[in-house]
Amino acid sequence: MDNKFTFIDLFSGIGGFHQALVSNGGVCKGYSEINRDAIDTYCKNFSEKKEHNLGDITKIDSLPAHDLLTAGVPCQSWSIAGKNLGFDDDRGQLWNDTIYLLKKSQPKAFIFENVKGLVDPRNKEALNYILKRIKEAGYYTDYYVVNSFDYGVPQNRVRIYIIGFKEEQYFKKFQLPKALDNKVKLADILGVKLEEVKVQENKEENRNMSLSSKNGFNDYFLFNDLRNGKTTIHSWDIIKTTAREKDICYLLLKNRRKSAYGRLDGNPLSLEHFISLDATIKQDELDKLVELEIFKKVEYVYAIKKVEEDLLEDELLILKQSDENRLILDELKVNKILKLNRVSIAKTIAQLKEKNILSVIEYRYEFKNSKISTGLFGINRIFLPTSDTFPTLVASDTNDYVTLKQIIPSCDESYREEFLKKVYKSKNYRKITKEEACLIQGFPKDFKLPESRARWMKLIGNSVSIPVIDILCKAILETSVFESKLNKESNINKLSA
Q1: What domains does the chain contain, in order, with CATH numbers?
Q2: Which of 156, 342, 371, 494 suits a disulfide with 389, CB 3.0-4.6 Å?
């Protein structure tokens, strides 16, 4: 069976689609990309000419004839990490440009890729709009939510793939391949030979935060003060603290999310709150934890001393939200009026304090490290080689690390202590290398990329996982959608002969 077909590569990036399609008999008839680094990388690795770049999709009026159209449409508009603006974002409008070119060029089939945020209930209307427009363009289509881990890479990368056919008979034949039984694991990429260990399963282990766990033990350690778990490392585990100081830290950790202390997901606690939980706690103990940079002291309640007429609009708007001549921080942070008017609470309060309009009447205590994704001391997570997957590679480098050291769990406490001793304190961990990042996305490890980590991480993070495209391409070929063209060409050649 001759699988030869032609394709156009929209939003080509560094060529994830290209690599997979060419290996299945595809011939590239053109690509579209505007990022200079991505274009250079694409041309170096695939011997493509820059003149074949169709350029900015918003300026393309027509495409060369082709059989398969692919597009990794920019995902920021639907990403949970982004502002989730969808079609209210200019980048969301690129879907319209993509579908316009699909309708005009009428290829036999297409594959469009996007982040899983597009299937979020909040974006249901937008997804339905995209599918409706594709149907109006003359295609039978469906979407599939796929995790790259199921198809050959050790990465927890969930994406939506919209796949369609010009003719219904081929659409009906298409089937999403089953997940692979023998999955590639992180140890395969790191080159670590794991020791087989049998451990009694810990059925009480909370796996809500787990990306990979075996025998009830997580395969990574989380560095965080806002969450708790048997494989969570807190700042008070790293900074030298007394047993008493650790107890006070856990007291804040266990109570900060209770509604009794405020309306936020995590609330600072006042000295009075601490005393209500433990009558022996003293002010100087809280201040010592501030000095250790585990706690921070935050302004929480303000008294309005006076109101002047010549204040700025944002300042007046905040003052209008007062209750009994007081402003409470959590009330301001959840206030819809301030959100709609995009008022910067911190900046405006600082202005009002400088003008002697406000004075602080209550302080509270919160953890200094209050951003979950940032982690502690530059580390978010350290993954053991026993982990099945590495987190989703993204354009901006993360604070995720790997260790080549296998920790054999016996019980919760020893597992944690062994990790701290043999991995963290021994500095036996590192970030993934460029070659490993390539393999985690399914690229050859010698794939040519820029030397700068920030540049190659952006390019790899924005790409598709090659094994997923490979298996989707094979499934499309199984429908014989491109054979009808080959048969026609064969018949024409016979007649002309």
Answers
A1: 5-182+448-496 (3.40.50.150), 195-232+376-384+391-431 (no CATH), 243-367 (no CATH)
A2: 156
Average pLDDT over residues 232-249: 96
Query: Is 75 a catalytic site residue?
Result: yes
- 51: which residues sit within 8 A by CB, 6+ positions away? none
Between 86 and 321, the more confident residue is 321
Q: Work out the average pLDDT over 25-52.
A: 95
pTM for the full predicted model: 0.85
Residue among 394, 419, 386 nearest 238 (CA): 419
Nearest to 157 by CA among 223, 85, 79, 71: 79
The confidence score (pLDDT) of residue 88 equals: 43
Instruction: Tell me which residue of 135, 154, 148, 3 sits closest to 68, measured CA to CA.
Output: 3
pLDDT digits (tens, 9 = 90+) for 412-438: 889 999 999 999 999 999 999 999 999
Which residue is catalytic, options 28, 43, 75, 473?
75
What is the DSSP code (8-state) at residue 168? H
* CA–CA gap between residue 7 and residue 17 (Å, rounded): 10
